[in-house]
Amino acid sequence: MKYKTVIGLEVHVQLASKTKIFCGCRTNFGAEANTQICPVCLGLPGSLPVFNRKVLELSLKAAITLNCTIAETMKFDRKNYFYPDLPKAYQISQFDMPLAVKGYLDIELNGGNKRIEITRVHLEEDAGKLIHTQKESLVDFNRCGTPLIEIVSEPDLNNPEEAYSYLKKLKSILNYLEVSDCNMQEGSLRCDANISLMPQGSNKLGTRAEVKNLNSFKAVKDALTYEVTRQQAELEEGRKIFQETRLWDDTAKKTISMRSKEEAHDYRYFPEPDLPKFLIQTSMINDIKKSLPELGHEKKDRFVKDYSLSEYDADILTSSKAMAEYYERCLKILNEPKEVANWLIGPVLSELKNLNEAFDSIKLDPRELIEMIKLIKENKVNVNTAKEEILPEIIENYKKTADVLKEKDILQVSDEAELSAFIKQVISENEKSINDYQQGKKSAIMYLVGQVMRLSKGKANPKKVKEMLEKKLEN
Ligand SMILES: [Zn+2]
Q: Which of 382, 407, 432 is the last residue before a domain boundary?
C-alpha cells in the first residue's frame, strides 16, 4: 500500500424529543406536509426562538457518554445560506462555542480496540425537505427546526471497516441512551464522510473530498471503498484531488462531484441575536451522569459473564436495546439463558424478518413465548410443531399459546399404544432400512423415525419413537 487512508466522519443525529428545538411544533415523522409548522420554525418576522430543555438533556446524555468536555457556556450562531427548504435563509447552529468538545469513542476491531477522538458535538436545527415530481418541486417545512446534534470525529479512521465499526458503536450508544431512534431510512442518523489519501510515512494530510448522501451503513462502507480506489487512481496518474463535495449514488455504486467544498467563512457565521448564551450547570451534568443506563457493550459483557453465553450470541441479543431487555424479561419467567437465547436468535428473529419488523415493534408477550418453550420441555408439543404451528400465531396474530393449543390438534403423542401402531406400519414397509440398521448402519434409524413422524403428521414424540424403535429392532 503506497498510500494511507484518512477518514473523518460527521454524523447528524435527530434527537428523540417530541417537539422542535426552538418551538413547540411536533417532530412526528411522516405527518402530512406542512402540518407541523408555526411562525418560529417558518422564520416569520417578529417570531422568537425558545430553546427546548429536553433537547439540552438529550444532547448532554450523548456528549457525556462520548467522554466529551461539556461547555460551561455555549452559544448559538447563524449559519447563512440560501436554499428553498430554508425559509429563514439561515440555520441556527453552533460555531465557536459548541455544546461539547474533545471526546472519544473506543471501537472494537478484529485486532483489538482503537480509540477514535471526537472533535466536537454541537446542536443545530434541521432544514425542510424538497419533494421533486416530474412537473414541479414542492416544499415540506415540517422538518424545519427538528433538533439535531452533529458529532464530528477527528480523522482517526484508516479504512472503510473502521468507519463502519465507529458508526455501529455510535448507533448502539445512541440507541441505548434513547437519545435518538437512529432510524437511518427515516433520516434520524445521517453521515457525511471526509476522506483523503496521503503517501505512507508522510505527515501532511492530502486534499480531502466530502461524501454525502450515505443512507445506510453499507453505503458508508461502499462509498468509502469506492473513494479510496478513485483517489488512488487519480494520484497514480499524477492528477490532483480537488476539495469538493461528492454525492454517493447507491444505484450506480459511485460518487459524483456535486460542488466545490465551501469553507466555514463562506457561511458568515455570527452569534444568534435572538438567543442568549447558555450556562450549563454542573448539577445538571451530574444528574445526567447518575441517570445513564447500561450501554450495549456493557450489557454484552455482562450477558457473557452472567449467562455463560457465547460472544456471538451476546452480540446479537444486545444489538438492540429492545431485544436485550426482552431477553431479560423472558429470563425472569424461565431461567434458562441458553435455551431462551436460541429461541430469540433463531426462530423469533427469522419470524420477525419474514414480517419485515424490527425487534422494537414486537408485540409478543414474553409469557406466551415462555409458555411455548415450557410445552416443549414438558413433552407436550415437539420443537418443529412449536416453530411452525404456535410461534407464527403468537407473533403475528397476538394469540395466547394456550388458545393455539386448544384450536389446533397439535399435542405431542407419547402414548406407547398409539405410537406402536405407527411403528408397526413403518417396520413392515421399510425392510431395507431395517436390514441396514441391523447390519450396523445405526444412522438408518433416523430415517425410520422420520417415517413415523410423517405418519403421525408431525405429532409423535421423536425421542420416544427412537427409543421404541431401537428396542424393537434390537429384539
Ligand atoms: Zn414551529
A: 407
